[in-house]
Design goal:
Helix content: 25-40%
Low-confidence stretches: none
Shape: globular
Strand content: 15-25%
Largest sheet: 6 strands, mixed
Radius of gyration: 14 Å
Structural class: alpha/beta
Order of helices and strands: EEHEHEHEEH
Mean pLDDT: 92
Strand order of the largest sheet: 1-4-3-2-5-6
Distance between the termini: 28 Å
Number of helices: 4
């Protein structure tokens, strides 16, 4: 549940997890306040993995930014960091973060091709988990 989306495919106005049935979904919930720490490292890792897998049609990357900034501020960050995949701007009530029970930022979640949340803790093994899920 996001108030606004950035980097959507042309003609699309929003996204839901069901849009990704048949694909491994790499969902990262993040905020920009940690530019030189864990969040920046994760975003760099996600951007690298996106470039690695971008030509495959069985994987998708989506980010959700917290509600601490306006959509215009988030859009500026997305453009500065050259993030190429869709980014949602969470609601002021942090509804998406609450739905996924996010207690730390960044939080990357892996959802399998059937739409089932498979991995909630991916630190240090994200690439390995993605490769394993793509083989199934």
């Amino acid at each position: 549940t996001c108030q606004e989306w950035l980097n959507l495919p042309e003609g699309q106005e929003s996204l839901t997890p069901s849009d990704y049935i048949g694909k491994v979904l790499v969902l990262t919930l993040w905020a920009d306040f940690d530019r030189n720490g864990t969040t920046q490292e994760r975003m760099d890792e996600i951007n690298y993995l996106y470039r690695m897998f971008k030509d495959r049609d069985d994987i998708a990357f989506v980010g959700i930014h917290d509600a601490g900034l306006t959509p215009d501020e988030i859009d500026l960050i997305v453009r500065q960091q050259k993030i190429p995949y869709p980014i949602g701007c969470d609601t002021e009530e942090f509804q998406t973060f609450q739905n996924y029970k996010v207690h730390q930022i960044p939080q990357t979640i892996l959802i399998d091709k059937q739409g089932t949340l498979k991995y909630y803790e991916v630190d240090g093994r994200l690439h390995t988990l993605i490769k394993a899920m793509l083989r199934k």
